[in-house]
Amino acid sequence: MKKGAMFGLDARIALAIFGALSVISGAALYSAIQNSKVTSFVAQHAEHAKAFESYYIDTGEFVARDAGVLMQQFDIDSLYVNPSLNGWKGPYLSVNYENDGSNVFYPLNGYTARYELYETGTWGLEISNG
Which residue range(s) make up the domain with 102? Predict the structure, then answer.
């Protein structure tokens, strides 16, 4: 038997083991990243719910709604800028956002969220990856 033949086989076995460990750890890392995205979104949603509640407690009024929209979409600008209401103690949200005029909230994680109060009085949230 040649002296260098076993080195090639050892290297292939080590490479196969390294590849298998890479696949396993990569899958675990991907799962952890997905779980952290969900956790982040849920925490952000809870912060928004607290902002709506704090606004109502401070001002005694709900966040302003757009007229003529079936689902009664809320104007979240009043959570950042005082709409000249007595008792306003905001801003109620700490994240930066962009508003394109349609009352769509663009948080930093790249998702858009539109908070709506349905006719039944229940809260809903429409999510789209944007």
Answer: 5-129
DSSP 3-16: TTHHHHHHHHHHHH
CB atoms within 10 A of CB 100: 8
**DSSP run (H or E) holding 19:** helix 5-59
pTM, rounded to two decimals: 0.50
Q: Which residues of 24-60 are buried (b: 16+ CB within 10 A; e: fewer)?
A: eeeeeeeeeeeeeeeeeeeebeeebeebbeebeeebe
The total of structural domains in the chain comes to 1
pLDDT higher than 70, residue 66? no
Prior bond to 91 cis, omega within 30? yes
Structure tokens at 45: 């949603």
Cβ within 8 Å of residue 124, ≥6 positions away: 71, 115, 116, 117, 118
